[in-house]
Amino acid sequence: MKYLLISFFMATSVLNAIGQAGDEQAIKAIGTAWQDAWNRHDMDALTDLLAEDVDFVTVLGPKGWLKGKAIFKEAHTAMHKSLFTESVWTTKATHVKFVRPDLATARVEWETTGDKVRHIKHGTPRFGIFTWVLEKQNGKWLIIASQNTEIIPPLPGQ
Questions:
Q1: Which among 149, 156, 158, 136 has a CA at the least distance from the CA of 51?
Q2: Residue 56 within a domain
Q3: Dmax of the chain from CA atoms?
Q4: Which residue, of 90, 108, 136, 147, has the greatest Cβ tally within 10 A?
Q5: Is residue 146 part of a domain?
Q6: What is the pLDDT of residues 53-101, one digit of tens each?
Q7: What is the pLDDT of residue 1?
Q8: Residue 157 domain flag
């Protein structure tokens, strides 16, 4: 009986590790899907990566706090018709940490070019990092909260 219980727990641990590896890959795939949707300027596909009640903070901080999928889509549709018409997004890396089997954080390193923003010369690359909180809902990982931080380059001579 003792060996049966040990075997059961070992098998359960292996299955959990396999499941977590699959979930980690699914979350990393969201980083790739974000890149693909952004570069197609497909706000439907971008919005599909989010939970209905997403809490999303853009690089604008409090002025860019978007509450809910509909607000996110409206804001990003407008930005992709003005600031991001020529934007090209690259997801550089996605680092995943599980809080629970159905809840994880991801740090997503990104780069864009072609953005028409006022604080850099047009065409200058921008770099940043997302912090995503993701939840597995009905078998699908969705972003439930996001904080986007732009990495501001140092001033010349610093």
A1: 136
A2: yes
A3: 70
A4: 108
A5: yes
A6: 999 999 988 888 999 999 999 999 999 999 999 999 999 999 999 999 9
A7: 63
A8: no
